[in-house]
Design a protein that fits this description.
With about 400 residues, the chain is an all-alpha fold. Helices cover about 70% and strands about 0% of the residues. Its main location: membrane.
Length: about 400
Amino acid sequence: MPATDYQGSSIPFASVGRSILSIRRDQVHAVVDSQQHDCASGDLGVEAFQKHVADLFLDLASASSSSTADELLSLAWVRKLLDSFLTCQEEFRGILFGCGRGQQMMLSRRPLDRFLSDFFDRAVKALDVCNAVRDGVDQLRQWRQHLEIALAALGGGRPLGEGHLRRARRALTDLTILMLDDKEAAGGPALSHRNRSFGRPGKEPPHHRRGGSGGAAASLGNFRSLSWSVSRSWSAARQLQAIGNNLAAPRGNEVAATNGLAVPVYTMGSVLFFVMWALVAAIPCQDRGLQTHFSVPRTFPWAASITSLQERIFEESKKKERKNSCGLLREIHQVEKCSRHLSELLDLVEFPLAEEKEMELGQAVEELAVVCNVLKEGLDPLERQVREVFLRIMRSRTEGLECLSRARDPE
């Protein structure tokens, strides 16, 4: 009996030991399988992300035919560019923070932590560009107000008198002064106001408080300096240079060491840089400058389309009629051309109006009205998109820093 009891009790003990070892092996295999699954899903996510970025920018590059509303650097095209950026930003966020625990732990390891740190630094610098671009959108809104005054004076189908012409001339003169001021500001940092920021929700913007036409000096005086605004010495050209500084593609060993995650980080950094550069090119900004070096290895599937867009925008900036403009936005060029043509016609008007001259004046007013309507319909949505870009960049950076902190100090 004692022997039997001993043997009987020894069999379950051996079985328990084997069970513990078996469970332990299963746990180890489960962890390895999980890490391999994270790697596999991460690779698929990276490849899909690269392809989607390529498709988005190929679409932007092809949407530049003069027969479409999405002509390069038009309001419609810039809004499409921002939509593409927001899509890329959301997918990039999913790759980094929507993965398994094993992959998240990798975020705090070298060299990926350095790539992420550099990217978040670029993101902070991009916030200032968003603030400056928003201020540029508000300047365009001021231009539109003067256009509306001129159109109200000359439109309506009523007979024109001296008073109507004087009011239209005055509005177009104020517009010309504003545009000249903006051109000077685009060429240097000596601007007489500071840009507003997205950091103070609930504040009514200046253009909602202004009632009359006013002069250029009065318009500029209504700007207020809020938190996160850029200073008088701030330069869009220098900021772009800072965003693109040391933006280099990861080497093969760095890609392998980061499970491929260095690739989407570099991709998103390049997309961020190009989008900020394109915004500064299109919208009036303080001390604009487009000379920033932009180079992407052709091995990336999206490189050709982004490089092509950059080259075409830069070539546009060198055209004689655009060289001294305060922004390359297509509608800015139309405002300059149409307002100048209308001013020249008004200077030649003599009463009584000849039928031919009246028809020519009416046609010029219609052309200006088309541009004014495009600005009226497009500026508010554009400003909302720039605001959304600002908030998404800020939110993603905060989430990324928190994720890095958790990965470095796991509970």
